[in-house]
């Protein structure tokens, strides 16, 4: 694997290798070993053209825990504001010795373009409304830790699917891992063409809820939204929000997920987000471990992930 651009590119073996490597790394972290020497001498560039809290910081933490050098690039305050192109920005960073470029961009497909221009590995950290593969991997990792094998598990993804790169990445990865995915959304918040999405679609959250092992709530992305096709906030919460009453109708052992950032009180009630069934904080913790596994597998060559000088 040279790049990580899309979960649709991952075979079952690829996906399991990443998840199993992350599990090994989590066990090392659990033994209070905070830093591994594996990527010493390698340089990871975080190239963020869109805002991020979790993804940017966790890639930085992951690279540093593997002893890589990290360069953080934010479009704000850079020569992008003078009109410099993505290609010239990337070539400039490559000239400074980037072995991997972690890129978030508002344009769907930008990481794929970048992969044609740079010699190092490219990791898609979220491109437009297209994909967010490491989010799906950390979500799958979190589900496996809570529920075990995902084969036959029923995962319900609810909300603003139209603008969600998280939904598409999860649908492909969870299908590859053997889970059964149902998307629940108002008709206006579903993509028009979903021919290649391996999942079911429903408009009725209450019908799907009692059969779900996982309920993953999506953020309503107001910044990408045309108000004309969004129901009122009150109507949206009533039909598609996860409140304590709906939480009570989930099966025993079922979990609640959200990739963050959340609109508390809109797609998810605060009591639900903070409940024992919620994995939202675990997802953030697991994000560092999963991103360590991705960087390790892309950059390490034959170095062992675990072992050596700590
Ligand atoms: N889940 C996610 O991608 O969060 P950030 O936008 O904060 O990185």
Automatic annotation (TrEMBL):
<feature type="binding site">
    <location>
        <position position="82"/>
    </location>
    <ligand>
        <name>L-aspartate</name>
    </ligand>
</feature>
<feature type="domain" description="Aspartate/ornithine carbamoyltransferase carbamoyl-P binding">
    <location>
        <begin position="2"/>
        <end position="144"/>
    </location>
</feature>
<feature type="binding site">
    <location>
        <position position="132"/>
    </location>
    <ligand>
        <name>carbamoyl phosphate</name>
    </ligand>
</feature>
<feature type="binding site">
    <location>
        <position position="54"/>
    </location>
    <ligand>
        <name>carbamoyl phosphate</name>
    </ligand>
</feature>
<comment type="pathway">
    <text>Pyrimidine metabolism; UMP biosynthesis via de novo pathway; (S)-dihydroorotate from bicarbonate: step 2/3.</text>
</comment>
<comment type="function">
    <text>Catalyzes the condensation of carbamoyl phosphate and aspartate to form carbamoyl aspartate and inorganic phosphate, the committed step in the de novo pyrimidine nucleotide biosynthesis pathway.</text>
</comment>
<protein>
    <recommendedName>
        <fullName>Aspartate carbamoyltransferase</fullName>
        <ecNumber>2.1.3.2</ecNumber>
    </recommendedName>
</protein>
<feature type="domain" description="Aspartate/ornithine carbamoyltransferase Asp/Orn-binding">
    <location>
        <begin position="152"/>
        <end position="298"/>
    </location>
</feature>
<dbReference type="InterPro" id="IPR006132">
    <property type="entry name" value="Asp/Orn_carbamoyltranf_P-bd"/>
</dbReference>
<feature type="binding site">
    <location>
        <position position="219"/>
    </location>
    <ligand>
        <name>L-aspartate</name>
    </ligand>
</feature>
<feature type="binding site">
    <location>
        <position position="165"/>
    </location>
    <ligand>
        <name>L-aspartate</name>
    </ligand>
</feature>
<feature type="binding site">
    <location>
        <position position="55"/>
    </location>
    <ligand>
        <name>carbamoyl phosphate</name>
    </ligand>
</feature>
<dbReference type="InterPro" id="IPR006130">
    <property type="entry name" value="Asp/Orn_carbamoylTrfase"/>
</dbReference>
<feature type="binding site">
    <location>
        <position position="135"/>
    </location>
    <ligand>
        <name>carbamoyl phosphate</name>
    </ligand>
</feature>
<dbReference type="Pfam" id="PF02729">
    <property type="entry name" value="OTCace_N"/>
</dbReference>
<feature type="binding site">
    <location>
        <position position="260"/>
    </location>
    <ligand>
        <name>carbamoyl phosphate</name>
    </ligand>
</feature>
<dbReference type="Pfam" id="PF00185">
    <property type="entry name" value="OTCace"/>
</dbReference>
<keyword id="KW-0665">Pyrimidine biosynthesis</keyword>
<feature type="binding site">
    <location>
        <position position="261"/>
    </location>
    <ligand>
        <name>carbamoyl phosphate</name>
    </ligand>
</feature>
<feature type="binding site">
    <location>
        <position position="104"/>
    </location>
    <ligand>
        <name>carbamoyl phosphate</name>
    </ligand>
</feature>
<keyword id="KW-0808">Transferase</keyword>
<dbReference type="GO" id="GO:0004070">
    <property type="term" value="F:aspartate carbamoyltransferase activity"/>
</dbReference>
<comment type="subunit">
    <text>Heterododecamer (2C3:3R2) of six catalytic PyrB chains organized as two trimers (C3), and six regulatory PyrI chains organized as three dimers (R2).</text>
</comment>
<dbReference type="InterPro" id="IPR036901">
    <property type="entry name" value="Asp/Orn_carbamoylTrfase_sf"/>
</dbReference>
<dbReference type="InterPro" id="IPR002082">
    <property type="entry name" value="Asp_carbamoyltransf"/>
</dbReference>
<dbReference type="InterPro" id="IPR006131">
    <property type="entry name" value="Asp_carbamoyltransf_Asp/Orn-bd"/>
</dbReference>
<comment type="similarity">
    <text>Belongs to the aspartate/ornithine carbamoyltransferase superfamily. ATCase family.</text>
</comment>
């Amino acid at each position: 694997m040279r790049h990580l651009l899309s979960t649709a590119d991952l075979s079952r073996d690829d996906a399991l290798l990443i998840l199993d490597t992350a599990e090994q790394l989590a066990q090392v972290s659990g033994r209070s070993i905070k830093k591994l020497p594996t990527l010493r001498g390698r340089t990871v560039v975080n190239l963020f053209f869109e805002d991020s809290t979790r993804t940017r910081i966790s890639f930085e933490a992951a690279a540093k825990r593997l002893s890589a050098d990290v360069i953080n690039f934010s479009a704000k305050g850079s020569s992008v504001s003078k009109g410099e192109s993505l290609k010239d920005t990337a070539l400039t960073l490559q000239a400074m010795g980037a072995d991997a470029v972690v890129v978030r961009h508002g344009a769907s497909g930008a990481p794929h373009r970048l992969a044609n221009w740079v010699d190092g590995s490219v990791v898609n950290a979220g491109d437009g409304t297209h994909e967010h593969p490491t989010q799906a991997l950390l979500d799958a990792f979190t589900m496996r830790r809570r529920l075990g094998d995902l084969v036959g598990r029923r995962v319900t993804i609810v909300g603003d699917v139209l603008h969600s790169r998280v939904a598409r990445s999860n649908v492909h990865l969870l299908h590859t891992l053997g889970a059964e995915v149902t998307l629940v959304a108002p008709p206006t918040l579903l993509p028009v063409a979903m021919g290649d999405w391996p999942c079911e679609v429903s408009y009725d959250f209450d019908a799907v809820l009692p059969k779900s092992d996982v309920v993953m709530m999506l953020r309503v992305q107001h910044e990408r939204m045309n108000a004309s096709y969004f129901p009122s906030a009150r109507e949206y919460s009533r039909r598609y929000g996860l409140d304590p009453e709906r939480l009570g109708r989930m099966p025993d052992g079922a979990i609640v997920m959200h990739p963050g950032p959340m609109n508390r009180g809109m797609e998810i009630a605060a009591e639900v987000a903070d409940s024992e069934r919620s994995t939202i904080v675990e997802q953030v913790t697991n994000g560092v471990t999963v991103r360590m596994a991705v960087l390790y597998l892309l950059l390490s060559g034959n170095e062992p992930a675990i072992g050596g000088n700590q």
